[in-house]
Input
Amino acid sequence: MLISTKGRYALRVMLEIAADKSGDYVPLARIADNQNISMKYLESIIVLLSKAGLLDGKRGKNGGYKLFRDPAEYTVLEILRLTEGGLAPVSCLEGEINSCVRAKTCQTLPLWEGLNNVINNYLGSISIAELLKQEGNPGAYI
Output
């Protein structure tokens, strides 16, 4: 599994917005500057996060973005699933139902299902709020 720049940047954007304690909308230009993300690429990520209901956007002079929910209510899993489309380690586990013709006889399927569970449980257990708390402790989730 390889997380794309879109997924990594989306996490950084959510953290940047969550870290702002002013209560104001965080301007897109500030996010782009602070995170060193091109405005064009950032806009595509913001649109995705906004359409999914993770961010509230406001246009105009005092416009920008802020979280709809408390940072503790956003999981890394939720954000990465949105940006990556899925996190399954093998294609047969991407949908709700495993439609692989070999599923009933596949000797490696339990391995992949176990890995999939580990990924989902781990990423689902870490919130944006927790990531903000662990700043300066890069090994906090190992």
Q: What stands out?
A: The beta strands are 55-58, 64-67. Residues 9 and 28 are 13 Å apart (CA to CA).
